[in-house]
Specification:
alpha+beta, Rossmann fold, Elongation Factor Tu (Ef-tu), domain 3, GTP-binding, cytoplasm, GTP-eEF1A_C, Transl_B-barrel_sf, hydrolase
Amino acid sequence: PQPAEAKPQPKQSPAKDTAKAKAKAKPAAVGENAPASKALAAKASAAKAPGMKAKGNAVEAAAAPAEEAAPTPKFEPPSRGTEVETPQEAEQDDGAEESAERPAALPDDTRPTINLVVVGHVDAGKSTLMGHLLCLVGTVSSKQLHKFEKESKQIGKASFAYAWVLDEGEDERQRGVTIDVCVKHFSTASKRFTILDAPGHRDFVPNMLQGAVQADVALLVADVSHFEAGFERGGQTKEHLQLVRSLGISELVVAVNKLDTCGWSQQTFEHIKAQLHSFIIGPECGYKEANVRYVPLSGFTGENMLERKEEALGWWEGPTLIEALDQLPTPARPPANGPLRLCVSDLYRSGASTCISGKMEGGAIATGQKVLVLPSGEQTTVKSLQMHGGASRSGHVGDYMDSVVLPLEPQFAAIGGVLCDPKSPVPVVDVLQVQILVFDLDVPMMRGQQLMCYLHTETLTATLTKLEQLIVKGRPQDRRPKCLQKGNTAVVQLRVSRKVCVEPKPQGKAPASSLSRLVLRDRGRTVAA
């Protein structure tokens, strides 16, 4: 069907301030698999974003109509380390309280940023490992740790003190499992890291996806004491590995954890490493051997995280955990001068403003910059920014923004939405043409099947409307398939339940952002990406 012009939404009356109540986050995530699942194009079915036109199956920017309001002055993306002059309108405050609490902007940090998702089976020790690491590098003070030790001991969970650094919710602490993605930051001499601690329980895979889709690299935590439970079918180790690879994450660090429980046995480490490695570099995962690093350690005792003791791991000649992370290459990014793209992963009201957080998928953002909020179509101006726990003048592609403050009612923004350049909006569509790789199935995938679709930070239902063609050894086949089975790579068409922000995968070897990757799940299992 021919796309129709999107009509501007009428202004709604502002909602009353509800005491800074944080909006309820919905789980989301996305994917595409590195060897497959490349979003080829997005076809507008009923509407399209302002300033877009359809050309065949592709969506491309169109010139703004002459009768529209005069365009805003061109925004030049700031370079790192340069001061950005804030327009007077951005300095106007909506309340004295907010103005008093706003910290002064810090100088831009030129070290590269790496967004690290921590994955693995439930109870593998992910939160304890990363909480202990944050304590060792000085992000968490001894006073804070003492508080966690005292509080966890009071409810009979003394061994959970490090995990409480990341598991901040009352439900998480009572149950002893991570439920929501927790974001923390730390730095080394050469890099800045954003930790996205993901839940390991199979019931919270959608939440895990929301963290993974914003990551550049993955840290898999494998528990030596319950390795088989996580690695067999029904465990989350294999599924998490497939998902992070499907989302384009090509660098992997494997932490073989709790080695203190088996007497620091080299034989146990080598046995688990061999089983993992055959799957990780095999056809179901597809990692390059040179991009996988293994580290034996104990997240509870801290052994081989920052330093190694000869009496425990005298046989290990490889890196510590912090060395393995610091050796990771700087991730490939889209061009720094590209259009702004920030996928919204969380938002909440703050006074008369809305605070948005999420990863910068493209371009740059700065205080005083005009932005377009999609899919609502609202334009507004950035009031202030925070990243890595402090105020900042600007953010760049690859950065995780802790807070982008907009003078906007929360009803005009949503998790799964995108902040973008008003002159270069992302397509907003409800029909997608995608290339997927099919995973393990109980029954074949058929036309008309209902699926859960995880597209960047958006979660919605999708209907498999067409099976267009199979791809065999990289070559499209002429005949349309009647169904899809495990291992098939195919081009399919999906109709999603509401309009979403997407972008076609870039041509050539340019890295694809989360806006062109998705994951499909059915009845609690990942079936394709």
